Amino acid sequence: MASQWQWIALVIACLTIAATAFLLLRADGAYPYSRQALIALPLLVAVGCGTVWSKSELAGEPAIQRPAVVWLTATVLDRQEQPSRDRIRLVLATRKPESGQPTRIRVNLPEALDDPGLSISAQVRVRARLMPPTSPMLPGGYDFARVAWFQGLSATGTVIEPVKILTPGRESSGIRVMQNRLSDHVRSNLDGSRGGIAATLASGDRGAIEQRDAQAMRDSGLAHLLSISGLHVSAVIAATYLFAIRLLALWPWLALRVRLPILAAGAGALAGIGYTLLTGAQVPTVRSCIGALLILIALATGREALSMRMLAVAACVVLLLWPESLTGPSFQMSFAAVMTIIGLGTSDTIRTFLAPREESWPLRLSRYIGMLFLTGLAIEIVLMPIALYHFHRAGIFGAFANVIAIPLTTLFVMPLIAIALLLDIVGAGAPAWWMADKAIGALLGLAHWVSSQPGAVRIMPAMGGANFLLFLSGGLWLALWRGRIRYFGLVTAMLGAISLALLRPPDILVSGDGRHVGITGESTGELLVLRDTRSGFVRDNLTELAGMNGTMRLLTQWEGARCSRDFCAVELNRHGRIWHVLIARSRDHVPERALAAACDRSDIVIADRWLPRSCKPGWLKIDRSTLARTGGVTIDLKGRSVRTVAQGQGDHGWWRGAKR
User: Fold this and answer.
1) What is the pTM of this model?
2) Per the structure, how many domains does the chain have?
3) Closest CA relative to residue 154, chosen from 173, 128, 181
4) Residue 97: which domain range?
5) Which residues fall within 8 angstroms of residue 458, CB to CB, at 6 or more apart?
6) Per the count of CB atoms within 10 A, which of 244, 438, 533, 624 is most buried?
7) Are 231 and 84 found together in one domain?
């Protein structure tokens, strides 16, 4: 929604519908469930709007006005080591350079500038290059400004001189310190990405995983193993539950007088809560812990463990605490995966397939392996639209990889890490660390092999919100309804798949600062770009949002472009029409009459500079003043349509386009 008045109108409309249903519809009428729905659903929408609005007002921190290089006196609030990138990430409490208002910023400190006294609570003096949190570079791109707003960050940047320690940080015994010490201990026993993955599973610290290995895990569909969520929390709680109930059963006096499942559930709950806190209490972990605790309660009380009600309660708790997570990939993917598992596990067909029967153990094992593969395949199908919407790429062979990777992680990697940590208490953990190293190496080898297969990764241009809603509505319909009526959800899901198959990349992409322009469809397998760049962020945004694999070619090297020192003139043949595009290369002075004549011969003019009013192209002019209002732009020549970053932002505190 674009403005606060639209939010207010929606809340009033919801309250009106609920009040009307309460007053006019009888509780003992012909359709009592319809009355309940007309009361409850609008009230939930109103509460949700109020919750996210309140969180935005309480947590939001306006960004600094402009980039700056400044000296700051600050207190270290958080420290996260990232050895794979040779840096330490710090969150600092300081004051804004232009106003002196208290604020929080996040800076990257090169490892070469690290200092032993630079720990949490240290008072420091730093010189840093600061930037306002960046809005999406192009429509459909990652919106870090929105994320930073809800994290209370007003700037990000890099420390450029050695830090002056005014007061060293005090040693603490808090959970964050325990997490850092555990992560350091794990990485001291395992090198490289293997140590990074082990540290992730033990403490939630992902900073030591090398980029190529992390990308291979994503492309092979195994990235969920690096995010502490349902699989890991469930494994810890299940292991604790089974161990506790077996151990307590050895005490006959207790077993005859107390319900052991209740005591075992309590032990599992404590283990799950402790693991959640130790690994950073991120949204997926909290969601998984809440769900697991509800399952423990169900087991202890004899209720059905897996149900959509359990998932709904977990979702409500997470959204009350982090309402902004609703639109993020973490919340959507984790809840979609669990919803898929519950939908499959509670279906009559699957229950019949998994029902106990007289058979040999190879047949029983084959059924369980088949079920594991079917579950993985269903999850991959459900998660693929979400991954394409947020990341513009998705692994295709994740179901096959997970058949091996999930048992390998839960039965070997995690237990070996736990055993190694326990044995380290008496200094005997080396053999377990060696075996854990081999198991993690096998996991990484599987990820690289799967991701390197032809067609293993699907890359697509930015998907529109309407396409995404087709998939979401179809998936929710399939999951929430019972009986044959649920299969009507396949209709909207199929419509989403058809729209995805018909999706075309935009013809022209223009970054928010106007410096980077990409043209698709002219050079096979290549994206034509105005400027070369060393920035991986710029390269990834241009290629992924164009639905390409990363190959870029300069316009000056393309035979279809006529480039001078100041401009490139390009002719694009699209759908039976020749489009004349003029793109600025420099900000040097150009005679106005010559510029006006060039604009008059062009259909589209793009520049990272201010263009005079005399520049009047045939259809579209995009210059610095235009981009300041719209942000990044994509152009579809077939439909003569322009999509901007501003169209997806609205009047929110994190969007600065209208204020420039």
Assistant:
1) 0.82
2) 5
3) 128
4) 68-172
5) 384, 388, 393, 394, 395, 396
6) 244
7) no
